[in-house]
Predict the structure.
Amino acid sequence: MKFSTLAKANAAGSLPLLLSLAKSFATPLYRASFLVAALDKGVLQQLSGGARDADAIAEALGITGHRELLCAWLDLGVRLGELAVTDGRYRLASRRAKALARPRNDAVAAALEEVVRFHFPVLLNAPAMLQSGARLTMSDQDGSIIARSSRIVQPFLEEAVEGVLARTGPVRLLEIGCGSGIYVRHAASLNPELTAVAIDYQDEVAAEAAANLAQWGLADRVEVKRADARKVADTERFDLVTMHNNIYYFAAHERTELLAHMRSLLKPGGRLLLTSACKGGNLSTEVLGLWFEFADFGGPLPDTTELALQMKDAGFTDIQMRRLIPGEQFCSFVGRNPSSATAAEERLS
Ligand SMILES: C[S@@+](CC[C@H](N)C(=O)[O-])C[C@H]1O[C@@H](n2cnc3c(N)ncnc32)[C@H](O)[C@@H]1O
């Protein structure tokens, strides 16, 4: 190459710009996409058991042809530094890939998948959606990935559940948007007399929760239903209603009515525990909020003051907001259903 050609490219400034973009954006994006695909298809998990050749990987994936294309994809994983290959046998190379393949890091793996599959698209498509009027729908997200990634905050939510649950005596719990069912399991482990109804809007999520709860030996204490929170009939009153990580599945203007409905499902003196990422937190939760703002069913992450006011307007008393994760806008809100209807009316007047 002539020196003058290099000088021309440099003078326009486009070559240095391209090199800097490749380093700061393209490579991390490629890495994240590769890792998500490899996790989703179980390739990292398979390789965590030892080196495998492409035939063994293809067999595990149920791929019958196109071995050369599978190798091309695996070789890019090598180029990205996530895999290594010796004598045609692939193995995990990066610390990241090894860590993500461990079952105990499943929530982090799911969070990475959530970023790539849901956060990137909303940032990428937001202006086009505004132009066309298109909106995201519930089917644009994968309920089981979300249920898994939500487990990142599990220890903090368990502490919030511990703060409101009586440890002895019969307790009836209603959990709204139960996801995998882990918080119902935690509540059941804290109080052996607790029984619960767990609902989720999405068929496959409710089915997964039912299977999990049965596997945890709780089928006789927890009834799982596919249901819409807005339509739960008030045929039964509960001691505790819990809503974890799902208030933003409801438009902001719907929330007071929803909360009032939740209150109508509580016994006098019963409590609502609501936990949520709120506005003003880390970048990932802000992008999550953007996703729900662009959804045809959801709304922004709640503002802490506004949500506490909505609870008050819904008739709750003794409302307490608490930050669950130091330095983060991840909060719990607890409100009580007044002991008599008159008390609620007084608060509302
Ligand atoms: C982010 S996930 C959280 C799952 C679980 N609570 C957790 O924290 O692991 C939110 C859940 O709320 C459910 N959901 C959304 N809208 C709902 C509605 N109207 N009624 C019942 N469940 C709903 C979704 O299907 C989803 O499983």
